Amino acid sequence: MVNVPKQRRTFCKKCKVHKLHKVTQYKKSKERHASQGRRRYDRKQQGYGGQTKPIFRKKVCDLCVIFLKPIFRKKAKTTKKIVLRMECTECKYRKQIPLKRCKHFELGGDKKRKGQMIQF
């Protein structure tokens, strides 16, 4: 489990000095329907021939559930890389810092203390 503080003192390229940065987690924005990749994909999908590009997620059809044999499409990864979005509190300059893969990510959680009892 990764626990990251909500504020971090780090170097700002615009100010050219170490400043306090606000830390948030990067989220994917809404997909645009007129983007080149979306138009290319829609054009390729038209007509006969079924699915043309791989879908990387689990797919279970109704017939497969009856016969207790689910169909899995290609699924490569179980986690995503965490990307931190750092914003300078002085000049509002933003930068992104990728972290390693992890299953559990927490922003601004309680710090672990050595020799402290676990409370339930």
TrEMBL record:
One of its GO terms (biological process) is translation. Residues 25-42 have a biased composition (Basic residues). One of its GO terms (molecular function) is structural constituent of ribosome. Residues 25-50 are annotated as: Disordered. Pfam families: Ribosomal_L44. The keyword Nucleus does not apply. Keywords: Ribonucleoprotein, Ribosomal protein. It comes from the Eukaryota. InterPro entries: Ribosomal_eL44 (IPR000552), Ribosomal_LSU_eL42 (IPR053708), Ribosomal_zn-bd (IPR011332). Belongs to the eukaryotic ribosomal protein eL42 family. This is Ribosomal protein L44. It comes from Popillia japonica (Japanese beetle).
